Amino acid sequence: MEARAPFVWTNILLFSLTFLAALVVVPWYGLKHGYSVGAWVLLGVFWAANELSITAGYHRLWAHRTYEAHWSLRVIFMLFGTMALQNTAWAWCSGHRRHHLYVDDVDRDPYAAPRGFWFSHIGWMIREYPSGQTDFSNIPDLRRDPILAFQQRFYLPLVLLTNIGLPLAAGALLGDVWGVFLLAGVLRLVLSHHFTFFINSLAHMWGSRPYTEENTARDNPVLAVLTFGEGYHNFHHIFAHDYRNGVRWWQWDPTKWLIASLHLVGLTRKLKRTPVFQIQRALLAMQFTRAQRLLDRVPATQASSRVSALRQHVAHEYESFLAAVADWARIKEQWLAEKRRAVAEHWEQTSFQLRLKELEQRLRLQRRRLRVLQAQLV
User: Fold this and answer.
1) What's the rounded Cα separation, in Å, for the pair 361 and 198?
2) Residue 35: count of CB within 10 angstroms of its CB
3) What is the pLDDT of residues 163-216, one digit of tens each?
4) How far from the centroid of its chain's Cα atoms is residue 9's Cα?
5) Are 301 and 253 members of one domain?
6) Rounded to an integer, what distance in angstroms lies between the CA atom of residue 148 and that of residue 299?
7) pTM
8) Are residues 283 and 343 in the same domain?
9) How many domains is the chain built from?
10) Whole-number Å distance between alpha carbons of 182 and 96
């Protein structure tokens, strides 16, 4: 039975010993000896480097190929991703691609949220469940990357170098060996682990679903702060090939800002963005679903003339929505046809873009009208 899957003792010891050290040894040493300012600074620097190497490197660059990066940046992501101690990029990305392909499938999603918080947070890593078996058949592109092949081959020495050698060397330079090791080594590792693990667990249980209800992924601004922008998980699961998770300008997504900033200096390129119309379409579709759900809750015997009028309004807005979607598909098809025939760029860059922007504005206005209607239904 899967419930009796063998324990992975290496992971059990790693997670339990580092957690206990962070819980007991770190505060004890702080109370007895204190920590230098340099130790606190290095905790923040190494933690940020680890998290961004997972979010911008392992996740958005390698797992989803949302952009391309210069080899020097890939080396940095590989080294600090190794320091985060979340397995090699091959293993991490292979499992994550399976997660997206089979999300919420309790038999095939490696960290399926329907199996409970403990399982999706850490339980899936402490037993050898069939859903978590290593299978590199879905990462042929990553297996051709010499930087990731090097990491796969020398993972253990790189882990020891980055997690023990680097904090000890930094501590020696600052004259605070044990302070730096405990803060920038042990505590940093525990925080990095569990904040990242929250995306597999809490981000599938706590938050809103503005884009889709077809899976358990949620948008959660609190988790976004803890995970450098990964908390907008509902958006990510429907638009996984967008280099952004926090798609609104005001949403906290340092990973997006890092990738975009590095693009300005030529270290990243080919950044993939979901068309605005597709995002608006997903938001509106969910609004219609929820409006209809509210209307369905009103018993036929209690339906008033006001409720009947609201039903007609929602139906009218939905017809308008379908018309806009059809217009967008038609314009897109025309653009592709014109592009194939290599017609002059003027129509492609001006007429096409203007017509799409008009449709995007139509959907924005419709979302506002629908919010007003929903407020009347509550």
Assistant:
1) 36
2) 19
3) 999 999 999 999 999 999 999 999 999 999 999 999 999 999 999 999 999 999
4) 28
5) no
6) 59
7) 0.87
8) yes
9) 2
10) 30
